[in-house]
Design goal:
Elements lengths: L2 E5 L2 E3 L5 E8 L7 E7 L6 E6 L5 E3 L7 E5 L6 E5 L8 E9 L2 E4 L3 E5 L2
Parallel strand pairs: 2-11
Antiparallel strand pairs: 1-3, 3-8, 4-5, 4-9, 5-6, 7-8, 9-10, 9-11
């Protein structure tokens, strides 16, 4: 059984930082393209960033210059370093892994930016 698990969410003040992590079980993530989406209350899910297994990265417009997506050397863990967080970054952040027609999603981790 494949499981994708996110961690690292929490409550942070505006201007603060968080690092999200994403790992998997029952799956070799090293050959998968991976990334993060987020969904805020009442809004559609939107792309945060992706990193292909080749290393190529794509960022959503709001994430450029503030967020950094990366993977460990074995490509089995995905990270999202989020800096200078804003109120608008409050959302559930979801990790996904995809390869061809197969895609897997985590349950999400809550990020709340509040003073």
């Amino acid at each position: 059984q494949v499981r994708i698990v996110e961690s690292g969410g929490g409550l942070v003040q505006p201007g603060g930082s968080l690092r999200l992590s994403c790992t998997g079980s029952g799956i070799d993530l090293s050959n998968y393209d991976m990334g993060w989406y987020r969904q805020a209350p009442g809004k559609q899910r939107e792309l945060v960033a992706t990193q292909r297994y080749t290393g190529d990265r794509v960022y959503g417009g709001f994430a450029k210059g503030r967020f950094i997506i990366s993977r460990n050397n074995a490509k089995t863990t995905l990270y999202l370093q989020m800096n200078n967080l804003e109120f608008e970054d409050t959302a559930v952040y979801y990790c996904f892994a995809e390869m061809g027609p197969a895609d897997y999603w985590g349950q999400g981790t809550q990020v709340t930016v509040s003073s």
